[in-house]
Specification:
Elements (H helix, E strand, L loop, with lengths): L1 H15 L21 H19 L4 E2 L2 E2 L1 E4 L4 E4 L2 E3 L4 H22 L2 H5 L2 H18 L2 H9 L4 H30 L1 H9 L6 H21 L2 H6 L1 H4 L1 H4 L6 E4 L1 H4 L24 H4 L20 H12 L7 E4 L1 H6 L7 H22 L4 E7 L12 E12 L5 E9 L3 E4 L4 E3 L4 E11 L7 E10 L2 E11 L5
Helix pairs in contact: 2-5, 3-17, 5-7, 7-8, 7-9
Bound molecules: iron/sulfur cluster (SF4) (2 copies).
Length: 472
């Protein structure tokens, strides 16, 4: 009975809490050993390429527009140099649905590959902040020693330098994030003009820097395991066919210490030599030999660490590898399932709809409405006129002269004031009279059709009505 209770306790203990929280609920700090190996090398290459992109993208211009700007406060969204207006909301809606389907499809198939290889949190943490920590405090072992040490001169010096460097980088990263929101022009004004003129921007800069410093100096892997909604979704998105970082328990168990020259098979041991290298390099502090876990960000550090041990002990590599649970259990190769193909089809259709909508997006959007509360006028005998308001959105990067014509019925347009000329990326409004021969008006609400032209080219046709006298 006592034995049963102990076993049951051990079983439940494993899933009782996160790997980084102890039985009292306190944080267990992760001292991850510096990873090295083939996958780490390629992950670093991709990570540095993405970092270069992150730091250069705000300065890239396409036809004078930023590559990416997400100013939700001012409702200014620019993607790949195309500025989106509130009128383009349907495109955003489609893009969001496509993104969600893409995330589901990708995760069902490849697990958290994005988290380990391309997520900004992982890239900044592993390629920037943790590297600085290694340079200043040394590898995991030295970091642990330093943490245990009393506060002497050396410790104070190292910790001060580390946190100063961390804050400086967080400040730079925070400023870059701000550039993605307000654009480089606004950001330049923010840093060059008096702070009193840019209280909101300055507050944003301070908040961003503080948040990044907090995340990378203290919160770290907790972002992936506690906060990130994508991480929390893993439980419902993964299935037995998903390709994740897997420990081949069939080959690895039972674990056993390695002795040179020993026949492991005869000794009844599996390939795992219980060296715990896979656990020591894990940035989220888990033991992948316990199976797929919520905390695993698929960074592949454990694959490299285990492969190195396999090589050192003359055993085949791949005891930990990218594989599905099904392929490990059945000893088969990874296969794509029906669900993956179904998601792919939906994704292709959605992407097609988005591409079609963006390609067919009008450079100018015009709205013509009769002036409210106004009836018809008789400017001269035999003629009737109606007053209209026109609103134009110029989504292009050029100032556009706009010409308005009436397509049907025949008539004359009199624009009040100067002609219509809308500056690039602005909204223009004007008022005009439509004058029509009385005999052309067949009812109290005659349909009219306007044509909006720019540089002689018809851009949009708009339907409206012309109010005339009541017909018998
Ligand atoms: S278990 Fe392996 S892949 Fe998962 S987070 Fe830890 S080291 Fe990375
Ligand atoms: S690194 Fe490989 S051999 Fe060592 S404990 Fe992990 S799974 Fe076992």
């Amino acid at each position: 009975m006592v034995q049963f209770k102990k076993e049951e306790q051990e079983k439940t203990d494993f899933r009782d809490r996160l790997a980084t929280i102890d039985e009292k609920g306190s944080r267990v700090w992760v001292y991850a050993k510096k990873p090295k190996g083939k996958l780490t090398f390629w992950r670093n290459i991709l990570g540095f390429a993405l970092l270069i992109f992150f730091f250069t993208a705000p300065f890239i211009r396409i036809h004078g527009e930023p590559l990416l700007m997400l100013n939700f406060i001012k409702r200014e969204i620019v993607l790949l140099g195309v500025r989106f207006w509130p009128q383009d909301f349907h495109l955003f809606f489609l893009a969001m649905i496509s993104l969600m389907v893409f995330i589901i499809l990708f995760t069902v198939t490849y697990g958290r590959l994005f988290c380990g290889w391309a997520c900004p949190q992982t890239i900044f943490m592993e390629l920037v902040f943790r590297r600085i920590e290694y340079w200043i405090e040394g590898d995991a072992y030295h970091q642990k020693q330093l943490a245990k040490m009393p506060w002497n001169k050396s410790k104070i010096f190292k910790k001060t330098i580390k946190h100063l460097v961390f804050y400086s980088i967080a400040f730079i990263v925070g400023n870059y994030f701000l550039m993605y929101i307000i654009g480089t022009e606004e950001w330049t004004k923010l840093v060059s003009e008096s702070p009193s003129k840019h209280i909101a921007g300055l507050s944003g800069m301070i908040v961003f820097s503080g948040v990044f410093y907090f995340i990378f100096s203290w919160f770290r892997e907790q972002v992936c395991t506690i906060v990130c909604p994508y991480g929390r979704l893993q439980g419902v998105l993964l299935d037995r066919n998903s390709i994740v970082i897997s420990y081949d328990y069939k080959r690895g168990e039972p674990k056993g210490t390695f002795f040179k020259g020993e026949d492991r098979e005869k000794a009844g041991k599996g390939s795992c030599i219980n060296c715990t290298q896979c656990v020591q390099v894990c940035p989220t502090g888990i033991d992948i030999r316990n199976g797929t876990q919520l905390e695993c960000i698929n960074c592949a550090c454990c694959i490299d660490a285990c492969n190195a041990m396999m090589e050192a002990t003359n055993q085949p590599k791949g005891l930990i590898r990218y594989a599905s649970e099904k392929s490990i259990t059945e000893g088969t190769k990874v296969k794509f399932n029906v669900r993956t193909f179904a998601y792919s089809a939906v994704l292709v259709i959605l992407l097609g709809v988005i591409a079609f909508s963006i390609a067919g997006r009008k450079p100018i959007e015009a709205t013509i409405l009769r002036a409210p509360g106004m009836l018809f006028q008789e400017p001269e005998p035999g003629k009737l006129s109606n007053l209209y308001n026109i609103k134009l959105v110029n989504k292009t990067n050029a100032d556009l002269p706009v010409e308005l014509q009436v397509i049907s019925p025949e008539g004359v347009i009199n624009i009040i004031g100067n002609g219509i000329n809308i500056k690039k990326q602005t909204v223009g409004e004007s008022v005009f009279f439509l004058i029509v021969d009385k005999e052309k008006i067949t009812s109290d609400k005659t349909p009219v059709r306007f044509g909006v032209y720019s540089n002689g080219k018809l851009i949009e046709e708009i339907n409206s009505t012309f109010v005339g006298p009541n017909m018998p």
